[in-house]
Structures are given as C-alpha cells and as structure tokens.
C-alpha cells in the first residue's frame, strides 16, 4: 500500500472515530427545544389565554435561567406519563413522586406543594372535614385518572369513580353522582368558579388536607442527556427562587385566585 493510501485510510478512520458512538454510549440528543408534556390544570397549567399557568411559568423560567429552550405539548395525564417512560418527552409536570413512576423517571427538586383536599356539596355533607382515609370507605369519591393517588386509594379500599379530566369531578359533585371530589385546593376552587360561577357558595372543601403533596418535573430515564438537563433545571430553579422570580409568579397567580373566590363569596385559606 502506498504512503498516500495509508494517510487516506488513517484520516478516514479518525473521522469515523469522531462520528460513531462508543459501545454502550448514550445516543446524542437531537438539536432543538427540549420537549415537555403536561395537561390542563388551572391555575397551574393553562393551555389557552394570555397566562400559561403558574407551574408552566416556573418551569419555563428555570429552564430559561439555565439557557435551555423548551417546547410544551398538552396531552392527557396518562399519555404524558407514557411519553416520559418511552423517552418521547424529556419531562412532564406537575407530577408527584411514586415508587411506580420512579422505575422509569427521575424527579427534580420540588416545584410546588399541593394542598390536597376533598370537595363536597354543603347541602349534602354539611360542614364536612377530613379525619382519615379509612373514614371515607362509605363514600363514592370522584377522582381523575392518571393522578398519583390511584395507588393510595386502591390500597385503602376506597370506592373511586375515575374520569379523564378534573372538571368532571366538579360536575359529578353537582349531579350528586359522588359525595366527594379529591383535588388540589387551588385547582378545585378555580374549576368550581369557572363551571358554576354563581353557585360557588354551595360547594365546600375540607379545612384539613388529606395530603401535602410535593410536585416535580418528572424526567425520563430513557431520554438522551436527561441527567445533565435535570441538573441544569434544578440549578435554574434554585436561581429563580433566589432572585425573587419564583415568589413573584406565585403572588401573581394566587392573587388572581383569591380575587375570583372573594368575588364569589368563598373564603380562601
């Protein structure tokens, strides 16, 4: 083989070593925005209108601080979890950590803590309050499919009627098809005000929450470069907490919800 042929071969091999992945190495992440998935969850996630929702703004602000471009897709909750499991999306929010989800996902630092309560009709339940999940076995509870509490309620032997969307839970209370509706306090009152704006005073929620539930960005273990992106997100989240951006967003949305409820004659804790 002539010397020129040897040089050409060495150059070709060198180029291939730069372009081909090493054995066992993760595939390179495609260029473009990081794909995030979520579902309508007012006031935390809003797919329409000028305001995108509290947690959408927090997640976007944290990524922006980290210099990461994002793209948000709206899908049903079960579909969001499936996309994360399969690596079709980098992350989904807001999600609680469960053992089942931890099999295929990592979780960011907490982006919010939900106050989970039970909603009811005052004319049917009086001044009802939560004491324990065991005390709820005689009631039909309206729930939302794909939520973290499915595992918990099943273990407790509760009777739960699941539907794909949170708004259905409010309507099932109104139609007396369920005695209780399990939901975050802010979400439930926002939906009640939206669906029954002149009848909010007929609804109640338990003063005692049944759970204080940290929410996270749930990150796919199958998504290329996920560990690095998650670390960058957590640093961005810490930065917007430190510079006051996080608190300003919380006040912006909570002030709006308080105003809506006060105008409807409903107190907000």
Descriptive account of the structure:
The chain is an alpha/beta fold. The protein is 41% helix and 21% strand. The chain has ten helices and ten strands. The protein has helices at 3-19, 54-65, 77-86, 99-102, 122-125, 149-156, 166-174, 185-195, 226-242, 245-263; strands spanning 34-38, 70-74, 91-95, 105-107, 112-121, 140-144, 159-163, 180-184, 203-205, 211-220. Strands 1, 2, 3, 4, 5, 6, 7, 8, 9 and 10 form a ten-stranded mixed sheet that branches. The protein is globular, with a radius of gyration of 23 Å. 35% of the residues are buried. Residues 1-30 have low confidence and may be disordered.
Quick recap of the structure?
The chain is built from ten helices and ten strands. It is α/β, with parallel strands linked by helices. Strands 1, 2, 3, 4, 5, 6, 7, 8, 9 and 10 form a ten-stranded mixed beta sheet that branches.
Strand content: 15-25%
Radius of gyration: 23 Å
Quickly count the helices. Answer: 10
Mean pLDDT metric: 87
Shape verdict:
globular
Structural class: alpha/beta
- Say how many strands there are: 10
Distance between the first and last residues' Cα = 83 Å
In terms of per-residue confidence, which ranges show pLDDT below 50 for 5 or more consecutive residues? 1-30
């Amino acid at each position: 083989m002539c010397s020129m042929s040897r040089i050409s071969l060495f150059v070709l091999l060198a180029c291939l070593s730069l372009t081909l992945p090493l054995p066992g190495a993760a595939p390179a992440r495609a260029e473009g925005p990081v794909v995030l998935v979520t579902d309508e969850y007012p006031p935390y996630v809003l797919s329409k209108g000028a305001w995108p929702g509290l947690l959408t703004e927090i997640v976007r602000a944290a990524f922006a601080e980290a210099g990461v471009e994002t793209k948000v897709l709206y899908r049903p909750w079960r579909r969001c979890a499936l996309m994360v499991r399969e690596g079709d999306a980098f992350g989904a929010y807001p999600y609680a950590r469960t053992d089942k989800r931890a099999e295929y996902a990592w979780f960011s630092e907490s982006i919010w803590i939900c106050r989970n309560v039970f909603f009811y009709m005052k004319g049917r339940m009086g001044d009802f309050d939560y004491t324990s999940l065991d005390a709820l076995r005689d009631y039909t509870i309206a729930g939302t499919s794909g939520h973290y509490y499915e595992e918990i309620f099943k273990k407790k032997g509760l009777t739960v009627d699941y539907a794909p969307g949170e708004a259905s839970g409010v309507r099932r209370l109104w139609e007396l098809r369920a005695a209780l509706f399990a939901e975050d306090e802010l979400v439930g009152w926002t939906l009640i005000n939206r669906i029954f704006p002149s009848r909010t005073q007929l609804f109640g929620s338990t003063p005692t929450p049944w759970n204080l539930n940290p929410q996270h960005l749930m990150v796919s273990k199958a998504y290329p470069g996920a560990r690095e992106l998650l670390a960058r997100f957590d640093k961005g989240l810490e930065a917007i907490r430190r510079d006051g951006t996080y608190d300003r967003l919380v006040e912006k949305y909570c002030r709006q919800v308080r105003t809506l409820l006060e105008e409807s004659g409903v107190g907000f804790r």
